[in-house]
Amino acid sequence: MLPISFVEGKGFREFMAFVEPEYTVPSRKTVTSRLEKLYDDGACDLHTQLASANKVSLTTDSWTALTTESYLTITAHYIHNWEVHSAVLQTKAMSERHTAENLSIVLTNATDQWGIGGKVSACVHDNASNMVLANTGLDWDSQPCFAHTLQLAINDGFKLQQINHVISSCNRLVSHFHHSTVATEALKQKQQQQNLPEHKLVQFCKTRWNSIHNMFERLLEQRWAVSAVLSDRTVTKLSDARTLEQTDESWTVMEELLPVLHSLKCATTALCGEFGVSISMIYPVTSTLLSKHLKETPGESPKVTKFKQTVSASLERRLAPADIRNASKVAYIASFLDPRHKHLRFATEEVRRAVKAAVSALLSSPDSERDLEDAAASNEPEPSAKKTKSDCLSASAIAVLFGEDYSGETHTTHTTELDNYCQDICPPLHTDPMTWWKANDCKYPRLAKLANTYLGVPATSVPSKHVFSAAGLIVNRLRTRLHPEHVDMLIFLNKNMA
């Protein structure tokens, strides 16, 4: 995370001479060559891991460095021994325009470079039109980031004139306290007098909708301390107070809107984890939001009701399949293969039938049967020593005596396996689907193969976005001349080898 030339600094060398006089600090070139060797070894290991994976899913997102260079980060996610593994594949510098064609070429080259061509099941990305088109027509399913979809739906609600007026008014109020040291100090005094927590007000950030939730929550907590500061003419001018003071109606809207925003924030937080958050959770969470948290409540403000209706309509429009044939999309199949949600209670009966038919078709495909045969062959015990004639006669006599069906084992078809899975009891919601499948993969071998593919698809492109924080520390003002290849190398090492 530091400039490599740091090892040649006078202060660092004096420090190391004091700590370990016998140690010779390597030069910048030596450290660079060692990092390159470490990267080569790490890339080779990752190649091996990806080669052993049944299916791989990708997430991708673009970002701009301090040097105004544009990069595209690609991460890979797969399940091995019923554990979800993630890795940063590459951070590619893109000097050309971010057209759908150029993005598609970068994604395809990355899969070929890492030896996962034909193994990618889905790619999760934001809702930008160029990214959507780039993933259309490729060998994998294109999946929009649920966090971005939810944000777009919530922003549709914030665009309502009455709600937007409250947000703008609160934002001006918070800005006043952030830009006035006198008002900030007065707020501290009022908090002490009223025995309120000495918390600062939270500023709204346009790129993070949940900052509105935090702003409303903090203002409601500090309402009377803020009002006391605004009514103190030694601190706030009358003209400023008239502009900044919130009406009772605005406070009511904030109070009623806060529980709704809290539920939406919980949904975002639950699905934005970097590990173990599968795409199977998207529709169950959305259904809960629509049927419970975004339902009209008797006696609530018309503004809040309108906000709920707008967000609900936007979510339904963005996530509903265009037609019943699209009900077999990755997210629906993943929910079906998640034992907690296999009954698809959030979907219509027509969608349930379509999803089950899609899964049945996948199970009966030649590729599925071939994978099952390969798995069975790999689990067969090693051949023992050569059997004698008497051993064969004994085995034959035992078979005749007890009959072939004595063990109770029967050959199940994919239809029987699918029916048994549907009739099996759903585990509790807190159950880890990976743990459940690890215990039941022998019971449902064909479905386990599908679960290994679909449950490894992330719900959001957050893994790619998390790279940005590390990248911001690597490509800083002290490293503006860092070569793009070394940026890729350092991010790879920082995220995969830590």
The ordered H/E elements are HHEEEHEHEHHHHHHHHHHHHHHHHHH
From the spread of the alpha carbons, the general shape counts as: flat
User: What is the mean predicted local confidence, pLDDT?
Assistant: 86
The poorly predicted ranges are 375-387, 398-410
- Give the DSSP E fraction (strand runs of 2 or more residues): 5-15%
Backbone structural class: alpha/beta
Largest sheet: 5 strands, mixed
Tell me the helix content: 55-70%
How would you portray this structure in words?
The chain has three domains: 29-145 and 461-496, Nucleotidyltransferase, domain 5; 146-320, no CATH class; 327-377 and 410-459, no CATH class. The model is unreliable at 375-387 and 398-410 (pLDDT under 50). The protein contains 22 helices and five strands. The protein is of the alpha/beta class and 498 residues long. The termini are close together. A hairpin with a 5-residue loop joins strand 1 and strand 2 (70-80). It has a five-stranded mixed β-sheet with strand order 3-2-1-4-5, with helices on both faces.
